[in-house]
Amino acid sequence: MKNIVEFLSKKNYIFKKLYKIDIKKLDSRKKINIYEGIDIKSNYVAIFKIDQKSRFVTKNSKEIVLLLEKMIKIQEHNYKKKILLISSPLCSKAKKYLEELKWKIYENRI
User: Fold this and answer.
1) What is the domain range of residue 94?
2) Cα separation, 29 vs 12, whole angstroms
3) Predicted confidence band at 48 (pLDDT cuts at 50, 70, 90)?
4) Which DSSP symbol is given to 102?
5) In which element (H, E) is residue 91 found?
6) Within 10 A of 67 (CB to CB), how many other CB atoms are there?
7) How is residue 33 annotated by DSSP?
8) Phi–psi pair at 80, nearest 5 degrees
9) In this structure, are strands 44-50 and 32-39 parallel, antiparallel, or unpaired?
């Protein structure tokens, strides 16, 4: 989690609090790390960190949007900012789809 905080602080995201969300609460078996943060302006931020070797395609992007919707229902609040940290190659259609939904996408090797 320290690596994520350091990386996002370079992108001007500074958090008062940052929690890891248990993926089992969302009824998912995906290998993904999900974090919920509160930034210094008291906005809720959802952070999805995906480490996979295969290409991230549109199907994957639709799955994380569904996970976010489940997370909104369970946590009972909406997220002002949504961030995707991804280490695999990203399909251009998937990137366009997420950017239309106002996701920030950072390709990194954390």
Assistant:
1) 2-107
2) 31
3) very high
4) T
5) none
6) 20
7) E
8) -70, -35
9) antiparallel
Residue 48: C-alpha distances to residues 55, 76, 109 (Å): 16, 18, 14
* CB-neighbour burial class of residue 16 (10 A; exposed 0-12, middle 13-18, buried 19+): exposed
**Pairing label, strands 81-86, 44-50:** parallel
DSSP state of 57: -
Q: What is the pTM of this model?
A: 0.90
- For residue 29, the model assigns a pLDDT of 77
The CATH number covering residue 93 comes to: 3.40.1350.10
pLDDT cut 90: percent of the chain above it: 54
**What Cα–Cα distance (Å) separates residue 24 from each residue in 12, 16, 41, 60?**
30, 25, 29, 18
Cβ distance 38 to 15 under 8 Å?
A: yes
Q: How many domains are contained in the chain?
A: 1
- Determine the Cα–Cα distance for residues 75 and 86; give it in Å rounded to an integer: 23
Alpha helix positions (H), 1-110: 2-10, 58-75, 92-100
